[in-house]
Amino acid sequence: MKKPILVLCIDRDNDLFEKAKVSGPVVGREKNLTAACALALADPEDADSNAMFYAIKVHDEMKKEGHEAEVVTCTGDKSLGYAADKTLSNQLDRVVKEINPSSCVLISDGASDEEMLPIIKSRIKIDSTKIVFVKQAKELEKTYFVLIEKLKDPYYAKILLGIPALLMLLFSVSSYIGLGWQVIGVVIGIYLLIRLFGIDNFIMRILKEFRFSVEKTSWISYIGAFSLLMVGALICYQSVVYSQKLGLSGEKVIAYATSRTVFLVLIAVILAMAGKTIDAIHEGKKFSITKYSMYMIGATLAVLVLKISSDWVLNLSKPYVYFSDLLLVLATSTAIGYVSTKVISEIKRDMLINMRLDGKEAISEQGSYLGKIVGVDVKSGSLIIQTIFDKKYTIPFGAVSTISENVVLKTGES
User: From the CB of residue 247, how many other CB atoms can be counted at a distance below 10 Å?
Assistant: First the structure.
């Protein structure tokens, strides 16, 4: 059988999933046409839908010329960078393995997608590249138009507006309470480390689950949690001012403020999680309760460690906290965390075995379509997934993140 030519359209920032809730890779003319229409209806100004329509047009023209062709759209990640390239690479590997094309025609909507060229060339020969511009915006796209459009994207807005705003806020607050520029350096350093290790993405995934809706019971707990956090911020500020009056400085100021606010933050977290748990029970999403339970246990252990560490740094009055006490709490917290993880994993395993998951679609946390669940392998503790190419593979129970209409899985894409 003659190897097909792949008409490859790429959506590096994953607008297809973010706006139209269509997971990549999208394989075949009809599925691409449906996906392009869905994206165009969700956002008529999005350039990715134009690229997809053009890819379909190229596919049809090649078919008329007698070529064997297949059209595929691969998606990345809204955060761009490594996460997007990794997700696209994984999808492209699957497509190349299953379709086994001779070469490809690359359809792009701009310079951002062109950054994928080296990655694509390492996997498949590129015969032709076409950049699709909206005619009325061809010249503007490189200047004002791009800047305005990118500012609408939360990812770019956080960089172009968020960072300057954060710096101005930090300088203003630090100057007002007389802490100097050193505190700002500490905050920025912590932020950069969080970005380096991808902790911000993990935090954002958690925060996304806390969507305010008056139709759900959780909105009451959210208001309570937010109020407690505001009170905690006020107490933190007052603690900093009072600690300076006591003659404390440096790490002792931070320890004093932390020691007096961590339990209030813990109560706010538990209150918010309790609201999510009640919602999960009402909506029949009992599997999610295991995740919220783990969040509460993790938050409690983290607060205990922060509290004992702060008291050890301070040691202003009796009873004093010795280093051995700190080590004991650290060891105990580690042991409790390990046992809790094991127990909750077993509970999740039992729930997955008893659930009817056959026929549900599996997608990654980044929105990539992974396949359809066709069975559960109890012995190995894994789900059996069938891809769009009718190939089957297994993925462990531990990779399951949430279960609703679809099964969301944690993968190595990001």
Answer: 7
What angle do helix axes 287-314 and 262-282 make, rounded to 10 degrees?
Answer: 180
Measured from the Cβ of residue 60, the count of other Cβ atoms closer than 10 Å reads 14
Asked whether the beta carbons of 396 and 382 are under 8 A apart, the reply is yes
The bridge status of strand 126-131 relative to strand 103-108 is parallel
Distance CA 188, CA 166 (A): 9
Cα–Cα distance for residue pair 41/43, rounded to 1 Å: 6
Residue 405 in tokens: 């209409």
Q: Are 412 and 365 within 8 A, CB to CB?
A: no
Nearest CA among 121, 98, 142, 175 for reference residue 10: 121
DSSP for residue 29? H
Taking residue 308's Cβ as centre, other Cβ atoms within 10 Å add up to 19
- Asked whether 386 and 374 are in contact (CB, 8 A), the reply is yes
Each residue of 334-381: pLDDT tens digit? 999 999 999 998 888 888 888 888 888 888 876 677 888 888 888 888
Instruction: Using alpha carbons, select from 386, 304, 388, 364 the residue that is nearest to residue 23.
Output: 364
Q: Give Cα separations from 18 to 78, 332, 366 (angstroms).
A: 8, 42, 9
Question: To the nearest whole number, what is the mean pLDDT of the chain?
Answer: 81
With residue 104 as reference, give the H or E element that holds it. Answer: strand 103-108
Cα 337 from chain centre = 24
Structural domain boundaries of the chain?
5-147, 209-354, 361-409
The class level of CATH for 361-409 reads mainly beta
Contact 371, 362 (CB under 8 A): yes
pTM confidence score:
0.56
Sequence-ordered list of residues with C-beta below 8 angstroms from that of 143, at least 6 positions apart, any chain: none
Does a cis peptide bond (omega within 30 degrees of 0) precede residue 101?
Answer: no
